[in-house]
Each structure stands twice: as structure tokens, then as C-alpha cells.
């Protein structure tokens, strides 16, 4: 069964601009569902969704779980630790066993790039990526796009700069695809050691100094600096990183315009971002979290549906029946 | 595939539609015994416009402001599997319903499944004292035991025909048509 999005959502690279806009437009009414006295609609009643998390995650897993529950789906969480995965079961075997229990969808977070697509090609259930290796984190980029659109009323023509560890970041990759497909200009800024080679080939502007990026951009999306990178020799020290690339209030005050500040979380305050910036008036970091639930509801709803060609019948005048 | 254009017969023109709405407004007022507890809820999309028209007619005569709302029942439908996701879901905004007399307004009443979904959805917003149903066109063909309290016009519809309700705000003119698709 395929839908307007296809069977699976593994990344934004494969989606058309129209498909991305469809998800964002569908997310709009789902925001209101979370404001209702009873935060639940029966759209996915009777569907069973397995959240298969092979990597630690708090925000993304909880956000997916809220989205599923607010759509009335039945959910099961499987974490790699404490499951048969630890006993050496392969990904496909795990998924096939789950599928034998008649599930409808799998949300997967996995440390290997391509794991979501690999799984999607081997099971009948819809697969939604919640982040795979250094590949993509599509729902994070979709919620970033929705938050930018809310704040600026548009995406096309905006200048959005991703700051920090672009090399290891699936959030950055998904954002680059999504933003460029919707007509934004994308910049990247960070130390050479944390920039993938050939990043300019993706059509992004490369900034070597954070001051230049701040002068150029309308929106800064500050990526999390994973502290283990320091031990691996990518940066000399956390303090030096903050001194050279930290998004501080002093740096932002020199900008020609007020920049919208985003962060996918969890934040390292005083490493990649200044607390006064994270909690400042132009920060939309908590709006991102709110929008995450709505975007994930939209994705699950669109993937769960049947045949879109029949939906056309509902569009004719007086055709609410 | 080449098809001859659908054949349209006008059931209500703009003036007839306006008269029907005026009569419906009077009936709503009588049914609710005044405006004290009355709340009008339109079903997306054209029901919202029709509810707005009826509300304005009542407000003009009674000199009050009526609480009103809009309801998109897409997420309460029972046919996601067969019909698929609706591309754009409309806005839902519902005022306080506790102890109120809610009148649901829709353009066409057919199978009754939309109204069934609307009743389920309203129950998740509050507990009105009473809910009534007001439709512009009753075209028959019910699949559920649901009947309207107030009807603008009844139309007999055969196989291969459908009813189109057009409203100025969305379609550029007020009209109700019977459309035969060859």
C-alpha cells in the first residue's frame, strides 16, 4: 500500500518539495489537537506501532510516542538494551518477529546509516526513520522547517545557517535537503575538522568564522557538539570551541538583524550556545519541541492512509459525505 | 479519457438559497427557544460558511452575538484505510459547550457518517445539553440512524448524480446544483 508519501519515510532527500509541503500543511491542524481538553483523535485507532530504538533518545522517542497516542494508535517501545538484540539477533530478524505479531508501523532509531531504508525494503509495515547513523533525521528537519515557517511566514528566500558539527550530524543533512528543496539558502559554519569534505557540492555556503555566519543569516540552527568528539581529537577543548564558535549574546548583538535561534537539543549550555541566547527572546527552541509532536502526527497519519486517488472524491464541492 | 461535461441542474439559485437560510434561521431560533444557550457549529468546509450566514441572520434579528465554531471531522472518520488521508485538514475551533444547545450545520446530509463523526468529536470537547442537526440539503441515502431537525430542501438523487453546494465565499456564487456525471 502506498500513500502520498510512499510506504516509508527514511529521509528528505527522496521527497519532492510538494510532499514536504504536504507534511507541513498537514501538521498545522494537528497543533490544535494538542491544545484540546481531550488531546486525542481516533484517526489511527487499531493501528499498532513499534518504536524500535537502538540508540539512546529521550526527546525524539517521547515525541513519537505522544504523536502515536494522540492519534489513538497502540504503541510498544523496544530498546536495544535488555532485548534480544543484545543476544545477537539481527535487525531484520527482530523486525520480522515483530511483524509476525501483526504490527502496522515501525519507528526506528539506529546507529547505522541506511538502517531505516534497509528495514523498509524488507518488511511490509510502514517504516519511519527517527534518525539513522550520520544519514538523516527527517522528522527533526521537518519540525525545524515548520518552526521556521511559523516564525517567518515563509521558508523560500531565507538564509539559514547550520552551526557546529556538520560532519557527524544527520540533523544537518536532513535540514540541508529540506531547506534547499523549499527554496531557502543554506549556510554551514564550524571547524574544518567537523565539516564533511565536498559540503559545497550540496549547494551550501561555507563560513569559516561564526561572525560571518551571523552577519549573513536570518536563522541559526545550532547543532549539538557531542562531547566525545573532543576525546576523538576533532576539537582541542570545549572551552576553545566556545571561544571560537560559541553562539554568544555579544556576537549576536553585532548582527544587522535579530536572528532566530534554533537547536535540536539536547543543548550543551556554554559549549555551542550561550544560555542567554538559548533562553532569549529570539529563541524558538521550545517551539521546535512543540512542533515535533504535530509534525510526527502528520507523518504517521499520512503514511497510515490508504489510496490517495480516492481522496480526490472528497475535494469536490459539497463532497463532505 | 474523454468525457462529456457533467450536466448541471440548478436546485436552488442565489435567491432561493437566501430564502431557505432565512427560514432555517427562524427554525433554529424556535428549536433552541431563543439565543441564551444556542451555539452554532459548522462542519468544514461549506457547513462553516452556512453556519456563519445563519448566525448573522439570527444576530441581526435578536441583537446578540452568537457563539459559533468550526469542526473538521477528518480525524474522526472511519474510512482512512479506503479513502486515504485528506490532503488538507481544515481548522477546528470549538467554544465552550457545557450546558449549551449545539446546532450542527452542514451543507449536504447523505450517508450520515459525517454527522456520526461530528457527534463523536463534539463529545471530546464537552457535554452540551442538547445537539440538533441543521442541513441545507437532505439528499437521502442514510447508512446510519441519523435524521436532521431542520432542512433547507430535500432532493431525490439517483445513481450517477450528486449534489453540489456552492457558496459565495469559496466558490464565487450561491447555488445548489444537481450534477449528473456521465
* Morphology call of chain A: globular
**How far from one another are the termini of chain A?**
24 Å
Mean pLDDT of chain A: 91
- Mind telling me the C-alpha Rg of chain A? 20 Å
Residue share in β-strands of chain B? 25-35%
Beta strand count of chain B: 8
Which secondary-structure class do the elements of chain A indicate?
alpha/beta
User: Which pair of chains forms the biggest interface, and how many residues does each contribute?
Assistant: A-B, 38 and 45 residues
Largest sheet of chain B: 5 strands, parallel
Oligomer: heterodimer
**Element order of chain A: H for helix, E for strand:** HEHEHEHEHEHEEHEHHHEHHH
Largest sheet of chain A: 5 strands, parallel
Helical coverage of chain A, percent range = 25-40%
Fraction in beta strands of chain A = 5-15%
Describe this entry's structure for a reader.
The complex is a heterodimer of chains A (321) and B (182). Chain A has 321 residues and is an alpha/beta fold. Chain A has helices spanning 17-33, 59-70, 91-100, 115-120, 138-152, 170-181, 210-216, 228-231, 238-245, 249-253, 275-278, 285-304, 308-311, and strands at 48-53, 74-79, 105-110, 126-132, 159-163, 185-189, 205-207, 219-222, 260-262. Chain A has a five-stranded parallel beta sheet, sandwiched between helices. A four-stranded parallel beta sheet of chain A has the order 2-1-3-4. In chain A, helix 4 (115-120) links the parallel strand 3 and strand 4. In chain A, helix 5 crosses helix 12. Chain A is globular. The model of chain A is unreliable at 306-321 (pLDDT under 50). With 182 residues, chain B is an alpha/beta fold. The two termini of chain B are 12 Å apart. The longest helix of chain B has 18 residues, at 14-31. In chain B, 30% of the residues lie in helices and 28% in strands. In chain B, the strands form two sheets. A five-stranded parallel beta sheet of chain B has the order 3-2-4-5-6. In chain B, strands 1-8-7 form a three-stranded antiparallel beta sheet.
Amino acid at each position: 500500500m502506498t500513500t502520498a508519501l510512499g510506504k516509508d519515510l527514511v529521509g528528505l532527500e527522496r521527497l519532492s518539495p510538494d510532499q514536504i509541503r504536504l507534511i507541513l500543511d498537514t501538521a498545522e491542524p494537528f497543533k490544535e489537537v494538542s491544545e484540546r481538553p481531550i488531546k486525542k483523535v481516533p484517526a489511527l485507532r487499531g493501528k499498532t506501532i513499534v518504536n524500535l530504538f537502538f540508540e539512546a533518545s529521550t526527546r525524539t522517542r517521547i515525541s513519537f510516542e505522544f504523536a502515536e497516542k494522540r492519534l489513538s494508535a497502540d504503541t510498544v517501545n523496544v530498546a536495544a538494551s535488555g532485548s534480544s538484540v543484545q543476544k545477537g539477533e539481527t535487525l531484520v530478524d527482530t523486525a520480522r518477529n515483530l511483524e509476525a505479531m501483526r504490527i502496522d508501523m515501525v519507528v526506528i532509531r539506529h546507529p547505522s546509516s541506511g538502517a531505516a531504508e534497509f528495514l523498509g525494503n524488507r518488511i511490509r509495515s510502514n517504516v519511519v526513520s527517527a534518525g539513522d547513523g550520520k544519514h538523516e533525521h527527517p522528522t527533526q528537519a521537518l519540525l525545524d522547517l515548520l518552526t521556521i515557517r511559523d516564525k517567518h511566514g515563509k521558508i523560500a528566500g531565507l538564509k539559514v545557517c547550520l552551526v557546529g558539527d556538520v560532519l557527524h550530524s544527520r540533523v544537518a543533512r536532513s535540514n540541508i535537503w529540506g531547506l534547499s528543496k523549499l527554496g531557502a539558502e543554506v549556510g554551514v559554519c564550524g571547524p574544518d575538522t567537523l565539516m564533511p569534505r565536498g559540503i559545497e557540492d550540496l549547494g551550501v555556503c561555507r563560513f569559516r568564522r561564526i561572525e560571518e555566519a551571523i552577519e549573513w543569516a536570518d536563522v541559526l540552527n545550532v547543532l549539538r557538539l557531542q562531547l566525545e568528539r573532543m576525546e576523538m581529537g576533532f576539537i582541542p577543548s570545549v572551552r576553545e570551541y566556545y571561544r571560537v564558535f560559541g553562539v554568544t549574546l555579544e556576537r549576536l548583538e553585532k548582527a544587522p538583524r535579530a536572528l532566530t535561534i534554533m537547536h535540536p537539543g539536547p543543548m550543551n549550555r556554554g559549549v555551542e550556545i550561550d544560555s542567554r541566547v538559548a533562553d532569549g527572546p529570539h529563541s524558538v527552541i521550545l517551539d521546535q519541541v512543540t512542533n515535533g509532536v504535530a509534525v510526527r502526527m502528520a507523518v504517521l497519519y499520512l503514511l497510515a492512509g490508504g489510496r490517495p486517488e480516492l481522496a480526490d472524491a472528497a475535494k469536490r464541492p459539497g463532497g463532505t459525505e | 479519457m474523454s468525457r462529456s461535461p457533467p450536466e448541471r441542474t440548478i436546485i436552488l439559485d442565489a435567491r432561493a438559497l437566501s430564502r431557505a437560510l432565512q427560514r432555517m434561521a427562524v427554525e433554529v431560533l424556535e428549536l433552541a427557544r431563543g439565543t441564551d444557550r444556542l451555539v452554532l457549529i459548522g462542519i468544514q468546509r461549506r457547513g462553516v460558511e452556512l453556519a456563519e450566514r445563519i448566525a448573522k441572520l439570527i444576530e441581526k434579528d435578536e441583537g446578540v452575538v452568537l457563539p459559533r465554531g468550526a469542526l473538521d471531522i477528518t480525524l474522526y472518520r472511519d474510512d482512512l484505510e479506503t479513502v486515504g488521508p485528506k490532503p488538507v485538514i481544515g481548522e477546528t475551533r470549538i467554544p465552550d459547550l457545557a450546558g449549551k444547545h449545539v446546532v450542527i450545520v452542514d451543507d449536504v446530509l447523505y450517508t450520515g457518517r459525517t454527522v456520526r463523526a461530528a457527534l463523536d468529536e463534539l463529545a471530546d470537547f464537552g457535554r452540551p445539553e442538547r445537539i440538533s442537526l441543521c442541513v441545507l440539503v437532505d439528499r437521502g441515502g442514510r447508512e446510519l440512524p441519523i435524521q436532521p431537525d431542520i432542512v433547507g430542501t430535500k432532493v431525490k438523487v439517483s445513481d450517477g448524480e450528486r449534489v453540489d453546494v456552492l457558496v459565495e465565499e469559496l466558490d464565487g456564487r450561491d447555488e445548489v446544483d444537481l450534477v449528473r456525471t456521465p
